[in-house]
Amino acid sequence: MKTKDLFGICVFVLYLLILGGAVYIIDYYPKTAIEESLMIWMPWTLRLNFILLFAGLLFWWMNGRNTYAHPGEDACQSGKIYDSTNNRGKGLIFSKQVRILFTESREWLIPTLLLVTAFSAAYFLSPQIHRLFYDEDIYANIGQNIAYLNRAAMCNYGVFDYGDYQGNWMEYNKDPNGWPFLVSLLFQAFGVNEAYVFMLNNLIFSGSVLIVYLIVRRLTDRFFPALLGALVYAIIPHNLIWTNTAAAEPSAAFFGGLTALFLISYLRSEKKIHFYLFALTLPLACQMRPESGLIAIWAAIAILVLSPRTLLKLHVWAMGLLTVLFLMPHVFHLYAMSGHSWGAAGAKFSSAFFMSNIGVNGPYYLNNEQFPFMITILALMGCLSGKGIRRWTAVILAWLVLFWGIFLFFYAGSYRFGTDVRFALLTFMPMAILAGLGGGLLMEWFAALRQRGNPGAGEKYAGALIIMVLLFSWLSFLPLIRTVGQEAWAARFDHQYAWEFAKKMPNRSIVLTHNPNMFLLWGQSAIQSNVGLKDPELVRQLMERYPGQVYFHFNFWCNTERDPNRKLCEDLMAAYVMEEIATAQEQHYHYGLYRMHVKKN
Length: 601
Fold this sequence. Notes:
Number of helices: 24
Distance between the termini: 87 Å
Largest sheet: 7 strands, mixed
Strand content: 5-15%
Mean pLDDT: 88
Number of strands: 9
Shape: globular
Low-confidence stretches: 65-105
Radius of gyration: 26 Å
Strand order of the largest sheet: 4-3-6-5-7-9-8
Oligomer: single chain
Number of domains: 2
């Protein structure tokens, strides 16, 4: 038997073992046991996945090469990337260690300037604030627990004794752990600080701009469409708004785009290192958001449409073992969370939601109120791209349709439903790529009409005109980008006043609150409020441990009508002597910090 055949049999057996083991675990272990195991093992699998991906990137950086075919040659068939401008006689601008698709000695300056501008716009234009309460605190607290306790879970009872963080009452969260894991890397390196999470999203957004540039550059081998696509992504209003939060959507968009970039690079070059990077990026991309797994479906579509013979290659199946192996914890996560209420009763996905959702999510891209209509026009033009990349365009369009269409059937999928406009972020990258392609096509048309005798000059004028019109149309969205808005105002002020209340508590103290996660991020010991009624003996022990320094946080949930949490707060206020420390008022909502004392009989 040939070595290749034996290797193929071994790969097949390994697939059977992994899938068989997964079926056994799901069939044999209860969901609670799987959750407890995931708390422990998820941080380590994510770390190993990240380390192997980083090692692959380092190898590519040091040894990778970009080979160019002749203009007009089919890159999928030749296994080469071509540069339609190579008649200028200029090669790659960086040293051998830096293998990027820049083809002119000055070309790197404009993308670099765009990256700096994108980061600055994200940091300065939109308010740096939480918008998804209190999920962003939960994500960051899980990152804190991964960093310091090696537990992928949020903490409902945590204490700090002279800087030593101890977590109790750990609860596994329904959302995937990819974004909290990224946060944990930051916390391990620099310490726990909410400001770092905002900065991380700013950097991720800037990286996404570069990904759009590289994808369009890969597809067209032209500078202007790539630049325009990156610019479009950088100025989309809700991109700028949500990148200055601690939400998970920016990272979901980034890793989805990175997965697409590596797959496109492999299909264009057939280099094994590109598929290795794709195989290791895909599991991370799937774990950023519950719907992020759709990127795996898109990847399958891309392979079947663009290069089905890829599925016949042994190295693809061998490297695919890494993908399957690192996806298994996420499969267990999805199984453990199946049947979760997600905060609402009734069906979560249904065709009954389709008409109401499409009535909002369709016009969102057309009415020029929250999304620039000019970008939509450019994207539609991008669907008309030339014969050479028609199949690629169809695949990018499928990426857009998948992440737009999934929310049409979701109970909270309307872009006008609370803060759920954030789901639109997952469509912005394919939209920007199509817009870049459309801008390139439009530039060609304008150039041909403007100056037939000197098409190069005509292209420059047309390109500058397209960018100027795009930026001018974008100026009207600046008020939207700068606005905090009334959405979630009550929770926002709760968060703001809680930060001020935390400063009034001494280091050795503990607070009963509905949201221990945010206090733990600030280094303040905290425990769930219901302990005051469910376990008064534990409260008594806390009062002995922190004499005179046990507090109750009267918060957002204490003000909500028709909610059992309101009665819990009322019962707590009645069960203990509450000494007022600080209070605040916003509209009809009352917020306060009270020192707790046991009532004397």
